[in-house]
């Protein structure tokens, strides 16, 4: 058969392009030996070309922010390896391929939190665009239709909403229990089923500040289902420890706990300027599944917020000490005020989980991740910056009274969220937990008159005076109304 000139030319070019010796040579070249891109000479190409600083620029003390969405590859085989790999919490020596699968600034921050959490070599930490994104990603990575999960009544409102608005419609069965206090582990045990796949805890609870016996929960899960070493299908024990932070509570150090979750928007970020969430585990299998959800459904925390989160964490130790010192003074005033029915703060002797004995849940929960024995002689034990208190009254009377107390503050800010340097107050029944049916709220201890305060690092006397003045004004106005 005669070849046309056009076909002959194309065949010659094809043979040259696919010549084995050329392909092998290209693969054997190191990245430093490969031909460099031409220096652009045209204006349009100069505009479109990415310029990088000199290699010496990587010696800055603070980690840089990598905004790139994609990464250059050494060769096609390098790209093939990166695309073929099973997802993991951290990258390996091959580096990154695409920011939806992880990026340098995100990973640097994740490794910092992993260090605070005490994550082992095979585990990892993954960062998300909010605490809720971390929570839902952790749950979606292990739950499927027909599975069962156990949650406490006092779970965060957004978590409750996800369960009721999405998880149950996907065929996941949910039980809510009172998991607080010494009886909590047995309440969890009573809810276990053969298809239970998640045992979820939130401690200290939002907003009641009740404590879950995590050691007890881990024990009853082991007794009922066996340890993870003996039963890989054992339920995943997850802990939302946002209120405590790793400063006080390292959940992964507790036998039986698999997953630690934090809304990093709060104390870890610490400045009300980012949204972020972290999920940590010592299980490589869990981290692979979590990374798959992040890659395909949610997304990693963006580089700028990863950088800001790293910067916030650098002062976490000193901030947490000040939060706790201020909160104790505020809580002591609230406990003595005539308009306050109950005050929930782990540092008060009146806290229901502060029994003062060897089995004290407060003492067990508020252990610092630092070298506490070394610091104990010079720094007092603190109990976090979160306080909940209930104003006197029933039903709508308590509801309106609590709202007026919140609205009367002049130093403390009326706003949702928590854990920042500035103090915040909110009324859960009309704000963060308004989506929870009233009967479920009350079952979890979220009374109509309950107020939540996130105590900041302002001068303690300013905060005490502000709260006392607002409470006093509400009492005085009600007295005047009765007289009128």
UniProtKB/TrEMBL annotation:
Cited InterPro entries: Cys/Met-Metab_PyrdxlP-dep_enz, Cys_met_metab_PP, PyrdxlP-dep_Trfase, PyrdxlP-dep_Trfase_major, PyrdxlP-dep_Trfase_small
Protein keywords: Amino-acid biosynthesis, Cysteine biosynthesis, Pyridoxal phosphate
Modified residues (N6-(pyridoxal phosphate)lysine): 266
GO biological process terms on file: cysteine biosynthetic process
Group of enzyme by EC: lyase
Gene Ontology MF annotations: catalytic activity
Pathway annotation: Amino-acid biosynthesis; L-cysteine biosynthesis; L-cysteine from L-homocysteine and L-serine: step 2/2
Cofactor(s), names only, from the UniProt record: pyridoxal 5'-phosphate
Compositionally biased tracts (Polar residues): 21-32
Stretches for region Disordered: 21-40
Signal peptide boundaries: none
Pfam families the record matches: Cys_Met_Meta_PP
Gene3D superfamilies membership: Aspartate Aminotransferase, domain 1, Type I PLP-dependent aspartate aminotransferase-like (Major domain)
EC number: 4.4.1.1
Assigned protein family: Belongs to the trans-sulfuration enzymes family.
Protein known as: cystathionine gamma-lyase
């Amino acid at each position: 058969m005669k070849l046309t000139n056009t076909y002959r030319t194309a065949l010659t070019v094809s043979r040259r392009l696919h010549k084995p010796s050329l392909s092998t040579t290209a693969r054997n070249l190191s990245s430093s030996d490969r031909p460099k891109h031409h220096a652009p000479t045209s204006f349009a190409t100069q505009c479109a070309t990415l310029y990088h600083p000199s290699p010496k620029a990587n010696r800055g003390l603070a980690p840089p922010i990598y905004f790139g969405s994609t990464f250059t590859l050494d060769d096609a085989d390098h790209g093939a390896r990166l695309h073929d790999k099973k997802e993991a919490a951290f990258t390996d020596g091959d580096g990154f391929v695409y920011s939806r699968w992880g990026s340098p600034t995100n990973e640097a921050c994740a490794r910092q939190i992993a260090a605070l959490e005490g994550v082992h070599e095979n585990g990892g930490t993954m960062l998300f665009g909010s605490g809720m994104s971390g929570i839902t990603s952790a749950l979606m990575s292990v739950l499927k239709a027909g599975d069962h999960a156990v949650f406490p009544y006092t779970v965060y409102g957004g978590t409750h909403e996800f369960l009721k608005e999405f998880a149950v419609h996907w065929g996941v069965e949910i039980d809510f229990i009172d998991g607080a206090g010494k009886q909590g582990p047995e309440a969890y045990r009573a809810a276990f089923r053969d298809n239970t796949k998640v045992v979820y805890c939130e401690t200290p609870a939002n907003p009641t500040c009740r404590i879950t016996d995590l050691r007890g929960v881990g024990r009853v899960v082991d007794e009922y289902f066996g340890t993870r070493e003996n039963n890989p299908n054992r339920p995943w024990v997850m802990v939302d420890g946002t209120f405590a932070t790793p400063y006080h509570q390292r959940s992964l150090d507790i036998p039986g706990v698999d997953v630690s979750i934090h809304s990093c928007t709060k104390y870890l970020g610490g400045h009300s300027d980012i949204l972020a969430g972290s999920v940590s585990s010592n299980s490589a299998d869990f981290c692979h599944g979590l990374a798959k959800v992040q890659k395909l459904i949610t997304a990693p925390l963006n580089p700028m917020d990863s950088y800001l989160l790293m910067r916030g964490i650098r002062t976490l130790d000193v901030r947490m000490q000040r939060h706790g010192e201020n909160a104790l003074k505020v809580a002591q005033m609230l406990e003595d005020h005539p308009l306050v029915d109950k005050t929930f703060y782990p540092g008060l002797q009146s806290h229901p989980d502060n029994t003062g004995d060897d089995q004290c849940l407060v003492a067990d929960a508020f252990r610092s991740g630092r070298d506490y024995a070394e610091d104990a002689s010079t720094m007092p034990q603190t109990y976090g910056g979160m306080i909940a208190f209930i104003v006197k009254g029933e039903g709508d009377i308590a509801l309106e009274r609590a709202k007026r107390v919140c609205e009367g503050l002049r130093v403390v800010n009326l706003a949702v969220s928590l854990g920042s340097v500035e103090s915040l107050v909110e009324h859960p029944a009309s704000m963060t937990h308004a989506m929870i049916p009233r009967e479920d709220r009350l079952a979890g201890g979220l009374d109509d008159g309950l107020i939540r305060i996130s105590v900041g690092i302002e001068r303690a006397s300013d905060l005490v005076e502000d709260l006392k003045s607002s409470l006093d004004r509400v009492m005085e106005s009600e007295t005047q109304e009765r007289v009128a």
